[in-house]
Design a protein that fits this description.
With about 140 residues, the protein is mainly beta. The chain has a single domain, classed as OB fold (Dihydrolipoamide Acetyltransferase, E2P), CATH 2.40.50. Helix content is about 15%, strand content about 40%. The chain has three helices and six strands, in the order ααβαβββββ. The longest helix has 9 residues. The protein is globular.
Length: about 140
């Protein structure tokens, strides 16, 4: 490849890294199936079964990204004054929801939404996170 051609390209190494790293969070429409949204907006909830797909679609953004997930919520412990809840079985992609405010009184099927970060390939952390119980409902498939 001609090295002079490479020096003339209008892309910097940062742009090339951004292009290769993953999808950029675009503005969403009302019919967007993505569980990811800019800021504090709630997206279409991902299920435990669909998280393996969505974790590979996680957006690149310097801004806050909120992820929304529906599943069975279980108490898992504390981190100082913060309560930790787990969503989805250990065999699937695990989601940790970190609550710093009022603690939910019950666990069960719920929609959770919070600040997205990918801990590793099989673990997502939503911090801070809100839990919205879904009464009388079986977990999504």
């Amino acid at each position: 490849m001609n090295l002079r051609l490479l020096t003339c390209l209008p892309f910097s190494a940062g742009w090339i890294g951004l292009i290769l790293a993953g999808p950029v969070l675009a503005e969403t429409t009302g019919n967007d199936p993505s569980p990811f949204r800019r800021g504090d907006q709630m997206g279409t909830p991902a299920s435990c079964d669909s998280l393996d797909y969505w974790v590979h679609q996680s957006p690149i953004s310097n801004d806050r990204v909120t992820m929304t997930v529906e599943g069975r919520v279980m108490t898992t412990g504390t981190e100082g004054n913060r309560r930790l809840y787990t969503i989805c079985p250990a065999a699937e992609v695990q989601v940790t929801c970190v609550i710093t405010g009022p603690v939910p009184t019950a666990t069960g099927i719920a929609v959770v939404a919070g600040g997205f970060s990918r801990v590793h390939a099989r673990h997502i952390r939503l911090d801070p996170c809100q839990i919205y119980p879904v009464p009388d409902r079986a977990p999504p498939g």
